[in-house]
Amino acid sequence: MATITLSRVSKDYGGGPVLRGIDLEIREGEFVALMGPSGCGKSTLLRLIAGLEEPSGGQIHIDGRLVNDVAPKDRDLAMVFQSYALYPHMTVRENMSFALKQRRLPPAEITQAVEAAAVKLGLTNLLERKPKALSGGQRQRVAMGRAIVRNPKAFLFDEPLSNLDARLREQMRYEIRKLHRELGATSVYVTHDQVEAMTMADRIVALNDGAIQQVGSPQDLYDTPANLFVAGFLGSPPMNFLDATLAADGALVVEGQTLARVPPPAGLAPGATVTLGLRPERLALADPAEGVAARVDVVETTGTGQVAHLAIGAQRLKLFTMDGRRLAPGEVVGMVVPPDAPLLFDPGTGTRIA
Amino acid sequence: MNKTFARVLPRVLHALALAAFVAFALFPLFWLLKVSLTPDDLMYGEGVRLWPSRVTLDHYGAVLRHSQFPLFFRNSLIVSAATGLLATAAASAAGYAFSRFRFRGKAWVVGVMLISQMFPLIIIVAPIFRLLAPLGLTNSLTGLVVVYTAFNTPFAAFLMQSFFEAIPKDLEEAAMMDGATRFQALRHVILPLTLPGLAATGGFVFTAAWSELLFSLMLNSSAAVSTFPAGLLGFVSKFSVDFGQMMAAGVLALLPVGAFFLLIQRYLVQGLTAGAVKG
C-alpha cells in the first residue's frame, strides 16, 4: 500500500503539452478514478505513474520516494492493461507466476501465491490453459490475477473493462471493487466511462485537455461540478444546459418563462446571461397550468421511467420521470424546477457561479 | 442443379488455377530431378520425354565420389549457416530498435540501409575485393560470411522490424511492470513470440547465401573455399557440359534448403501471437 504524490507534473511529446501542471495526492488504500474523454491525458498520467513514460516536468513520489528516474520494474506497481497484455506463449499459471519468478521467489511459494489468487478469481480450472483458449472475461480475470499475486504497492488500471460486453463489465466492476475492499490496496483506475468512475471510485479526478478539472467524491462531482465540463461528463442522461437570463430578483428566465428563483449570486449584474444547468432527474412534471409550459418532442422509455425530450421555445432539454404518466409527442406539459436544482455557470469560462 | 453448379464452379476454377500455378512453379525442379536420373546414353537419344525409359543413380555416385562437390557442399553449409545466424542476430537487434525506440538519426540509418539495397552488387565487386584482399579475406570462407552478412542484414532488419511491429508494445510493458528489465522482457516475452519471424528471416538469409554466385566466384579462386554454386560451374568444361552430374549436384544442393524449411515451417505457419490481446 502506498501514497502517490504528483507535483507540477507535465508531459510534452513535442507536439504541445499532453499534461499540464498536474498536482494530485493519492492516499493510502484509496481507489481513485482518472476520468475524461479520449485524448485528455488520463492514460499518459497513468503511464507516468507506472514509469513507462518519463515526465517532461514535475515530480512523482511513491511513498515519499522520488521515482522520476526509477525504472518501472523497481516501482513495485502492478498494471492491468486495456488489452490485458497476457503473455500468449505462457499458460495462465505461467502468466501469473512471471512477476514472482522475476523476483526469484522459491517455487513452492510461487505455486501457493498463484493458486490462492486463482481461487480468489475463480481461475483454478484454467491454470494450465493458454490465453487464446480463454474468453474475454476470463482473460480479464487472468490480467487481474497477474496483478494481485504480486501484492504490489498499488494497482494501476488502464481502461481494463472496455473490451468486455455490458453485462460482464458490470460484473467485473463489482468484482474489482470487492477485491479492492479485501486487499485495501491503493488503486488508480483510468476510464472514459462515467458510470465506472461513479460506481467504483472513492474519488474521481476529472481531466480534460491535459489539466485537472476537479477532484472529489463521485457525489461531490455530481452535485457540485466545478465547471461545465464536469457537469456535462457525469450523469446519464446528461445535464441540460440552457441559456438563461438572471433577473434582479433571482428569477431565471428562459425563452420568456421563469423556470425558477435562486438567491442572486454576488458579482453578477442583473440581467446577466448565464448557462443554466439542470439535471434531468431533478425536474418534475406538473399540470400545464402550474409549471413552465414545455412541449414534448420525443419520449424514450427506459423501463424504470421515461426520458422526455422537451422544447421550451427554441431550447431543448431532457426530463427524467418515474411517475407512471404516459407522455405523448406533441403534448404540452408543465415542468417544475425545485429551487435547489439550478446550477449556474459562466457562459464564457464555463466555471460554476452558483 | 444450377445452384450446385454455381457453387462448385468457383471452387473448381480455384483448384485448377492453383494446380496450374504449382505445376508451373515446380516443373523446373521436376526437370532437374528427371535429368539427374537419366542415364548418359539416353540423355539425347530419347528426345524430349517427361520420364526416361530407364533411370540411374550413377550421376549421384559420380558427384559424391569423384567430384569435389562434397567439399563445396560443406563450404556452402558453413558459409550459409554462419551468415544465417549472424545476419539474423544483427537484424533482430536492429529491427527491435527500429520498431521500439525513437532515436536521433533513425530516418538516416533507415535511408542508408535502403540505399544499400538499391544498386546492382556487380558494381561494387571490385572495391570489395580491394578492401578484403589486404585483410586476407579473399579466398576465405570468413570473407564470404562477412560480405553476405553485410548485404543481407538491411533487408533482414526491415523484415524483423515488421515482425516486432506485429507484437503489441503492451506485452513488454506488462513484463517491465512485472519486474523485468527491457532486456529480460525481450528475452522472455518478445523473443519467443518472434520465433516465426526469426525462422523466416533466418530461412531467407540462409537461402540467399546458399545460392549466391557472384561474390563466391569473384572473391574466391581456390577450389578449397568454393561454395557449391561456383562449384556447379565446374561441370561446364570447354568442350561439354555434364548435365547429368550437374543436375544431380543441383538436387543434392536443394536438400539442405528443403530440410531447413521443413524444420522451420511449423514456426512459419503458427500464429503464435493469437490470443495475446483482445478477444
Shape of chain B: globular
Full CATH superfamily name of the largest domain in chain A: P-loop containing nucleotide triphosphate hydrolases
Assign a percent range to the helix content of chain A: 10-25%
| Percent range for β-strand residues of chain B | under 5%
How would you sum up the global shape of chain A? elongated
Helix and strand composition category of chain B:
mainly alpha
The number of helical segments of chain B is: 12
- Percentage of residues in DSSP E strands of chain A: 25-35%
- Identify the CATH homologous superfamily of the largest domain in chain B: MetI-like
Kindly report the spatial arrangement of strands forming the biggest sheet of chain A: 6-7-8-3-9-10
Give an overview of the whole structure.
- The complex is a heterodimer of chains A (354) and B (279).
- Chain A is an alpha+beta fold.
- Chain A has 2 domains: 4-233, Rossmann fold; 240-345, Beta Barrel (OB fold (Dihydrolipoamide Acetyltransferase, E2P)).
- Chain A contains 8 helices and 20 strands.
- Chain A has a 6-stranded mixed sheet with strand order 6-7-8-3-9-10, sandwiched between helices.
- Chain A is elongated.
- Chain A starts with a strand and ends in a 9-residue tail after the last strand.
- The mean pLDDT of chain A is 93.
- Chain B is an all-alpha fold.
- Chain B is globular and about 70 Å long.
- Chain B is built from 12 helices and no strands.
- Chain B has helices at 2-37, 40-43, 58-66, 69-100, 106-115, 125-132, 141-165, 169-177, 182-210, 214-219, 228-232, 243-269.
- Helix content of chain B is 72%, strand content 0%.
- Chain B folds into 2 domains: 2-43; 68-269, MetI-like fold.
- In chain B, helix 3 packs across helix 12, helix 4 (69-100) runs parallel beside helix 7 and helix 9 packs antiparallel against helix 12 (243-269).
- At the A-B interface, strand 6, helix 2 and helix 4 of A face helix 8 and helix 9 of B.
- Chain A: Keywords: ATP-binding, Nucleotide-binding, Transport.
- Chain A: One of its GO terms (cellular component) is ATP-binding cassette (ABC) transporter complex, substrate-binding subunit-containing.
